[in-house]
Amino acid sequence: MKKLIDYAKDAAKMAYAPYSQFAVGAALESTSGRIFTGCNVENASYGLTNCAERTAIFKAVSEGERTFRRMAIWVDSDTLFTPCGACRQVISEFSDDLEIIIYSRNEELHTTIAELLPHSFSLHKDHS
Ligand code: THU
Fold it and tell me: What backbone torsions phi and psi does residue 11 show, to the nearest 5 degrees?
């Protein structure tokens, strides 16, 4: 069976990153078992770039999913990186305890959104 990390690796191949050359892939599993992938999509107006994690969340929510089990993130790099602050906030909107597994070529980090963004800003947490 294809693993979540394999979906993230495939998604990274779709990255549109002509400015940074930093391709990121994310794969998000919903509680109903569906998998949504995302890649980073850059823009000549740099601040409009959308990260892989947010692409995956937005795709899932726009297709009717609001509750999630796990997210895998892949960068083809020697060093491990962690999601940016904007992505942490967007993930936390939909999950207090999402499991996040981050992979690089040589390392992996198992963490949660609660660990990455403690005391997150929240107005509404029932996702309805
Ligand atoms: N990027 C992501 O896709 N996810 C992150 O969590 C951090 C950064 C992307 C944005 C940009 O296209 C490139 O990586 C370099 O910052």
Answer: -65, -35
